[in-house]
Amino acid sequence: MEHVIFVPAIYHVDEISQLASLLSFIDNRIAVKDKKIILYLYSNRQVEDKDINYLKTLPVSQIVIYENDLFSDWEQPYIEAITQHINTIKPHAVISTSSDFIKSILARVAARFSCGFAVDCTDLIFDESTHNYSFLKPAYAGNINAKISVKNSSIVFATLKIKNVAECSFEAVDSKVEIVESLFEDLKPFSGKIKIIEKNLAQNIDNKLESAKIVIGVGRGIKDKENLKYAFELANLLNGAVGVTRPLVDMGWLDKEYQIGQSGKIVSPQIYFAFGVSGAVHHIYGIGNPKLIIAVNKNKDAQIFKIAHYGIVADATSIMKSFIKAFKSRLKGC
Ligand SMILES: Cc1cc2nc3c(=O)[nH]c(=O)nc-3n(C[C@H](O)[C@H](O)[C@H](O)COP(=O)(O)OP(=O)(O)OC[C@H]3O[C@@H](n4cnc5c(N)ncnc54)[C@H](O)[C@@H]3O)c2cc1C
């Protein structure tokens, strides 16, 4: 009997590279004969050819792309679509990335099937003989890994937070993949029950944190919200992105979209700058394995210096300004 894993994904939310990591991770962890991994990609615009070609190389049995204007910034259409697709596919497990948006969708879908839902897991353990799933998830402020066993659930629902894209290598498969680009016509989720009165969308953030090769990490050591402008200027000069520690988000300096770490985003830059970042484990969890870490901190004993390749004991904002000046004059000469 086939063992079917259904991976629902959202084109404008999920980075294709993260999706690749997730799929190869699932492929690696679930070693069972007759495994079938099915990816459904929901999109409100045409999926680019380069992304389709990349997806075709991934270790999946089937890819279906659903394009429909309804797949926009609110959950209901996805909930209806994914529910219908689960009823058709009848998967053993539904596993997705850990974006806030998909978590809010899958929580409601899981409830419809009266199943539990394990979120933000960092590892998956699959028992080949029983086909039982369990997951690991940081608990007690990240000090232990809790094991979550899934019992008596007709379908296993989970989201995975994969630490490092580079760790998840896979052998490209040849594209025996069926791509169905179809319009989902019988999507009637609203039927008068829900009326949109007003749409108040968060400011469109174009920071590309997850795919950035250079990340300018900023922590409480920059002291003043005003100083964030230097981080953005530096990111702009280096074609990078800005990421921050949790306190900056908690203080309302920036949106959660910018937060790196255990309860934020997982990034995978080649170069990570840490300006006024203490180096707490919850933050470092999210920075991947950069080839180069350059840290600036006033405290010579700061935790961040234990992992940095270059450390500068100085005021973070002053060094940001000096870097901007130096890179500007360098770039002028190019
Ligand atoms: C369950 C849980 C989940 C969490 N998830 C996350 C997460 O996803 N992401 C995250 O970031 N945190 C997370 N945290 C919080 C985390 O533990 C740390 O508290 C946080 O990362 C610290 O942020 P910080 O380094 O900016 O601030 P601080 O710890 O206050 O450190 C500021 C640093 O700046 C230095 N400094 C001060 N003045 C200057 C100056 N003028 N110039 C240069 N350096 C200076 C200080 O020496 C210090 O090292 C989580 C915590 C818990 C319990």
Structure description:
It is a single chain. With 334 residues, this protein is an alpha/beta fold. It has 2 domains: 3-182, 3-Layer(aba) Sandwich (Rossmann fold), CATH 3.40.50; 214-332, Rossmann fold. Helix content is 25%, strand content 24%. The protein has 8 helices and 15 strands. The protein has helices spanning 16-29, 49-56, 76-89, 100-112, 228-237, 246-250, 281-284, 316-332; strands at residues 3-10, 35-43, 62-67, 93-96, 118-121, 123-126, 133-139, 144-149, 156-160, 179-182, 214-218, 241-244, 271-275, 292-297, 310-313. The strands form 3 sheets. A 7-stranded parallel beta sheet has the order 5-9-4-1-2-3-10, sandwiched between helices. Helix 1 (16-29) links the parallel strand 1 and strand 2. Helix 3 (76-89) packs across helix 4 (100-112) and helix 5 (228-237) packs parallel to helix 8. The relative contact order is 0.11. The protein binds flavin-adenine dinucleotide (FAD). Residues 141-142, 219-221, 223, 245-247, 259-264, 276-278, 280, 282-283, 286, 296-299, 302, 315-316 line the site of flavin-adenine dinucleotide.
In brief:
With 334 residues, the chain is α/β, with parallel strands linked by helices. The chain is 25% helix and 24% strand.
**Helical proportion, percent range:** 25-40%
DSSP E strands, number: 15
Broad structural category:
alpha/beta
Write the CATH architecture name of the largest domain.
3-Layer(aba) Sandwich
CATH third-level topology of the largest domain: Rossmann fold
Fraction in beta strands: 15-25%
Tell me about the biggest sheet? 7 strands, parallel
Which small-molecule species are bound to the chains here?
A: flavin-adenine dinucleotide
Arrangement of strands in the largest sheet: 5-9-4-1-2-3-10
Write the element-wise H/E pattern from the N-terminal end onward: EHEHEHEHEEEEEEEHEHEHEEH
Q: Point out poorly predicted stretches.
A: none
Mean pLDDT: 86
- End-to-end separation: 61 Å
What is the top-level CATH class of the largest domain? Alpha Beta
Number of distinct helices: 8
Round the Cα radius of gyration to an integer and report it: 21 Å
**Per the principal axes of the C-alpha atoms, what is the gross shape?**
globular
Number of self-contained structural domains: 2
Keywords: FAD, Flavoprotein
InterPro entries: DHS-like_NAD/FAD-binding_dom, ETF_a/b_N, ETF_a/FixB, ETF_asu_C, Rossmann-like_a/b/a_fold
Domain Electron transfer flavoprotein alpha/beta-subunit N-terminal: 60-161
Cofactor: FAD
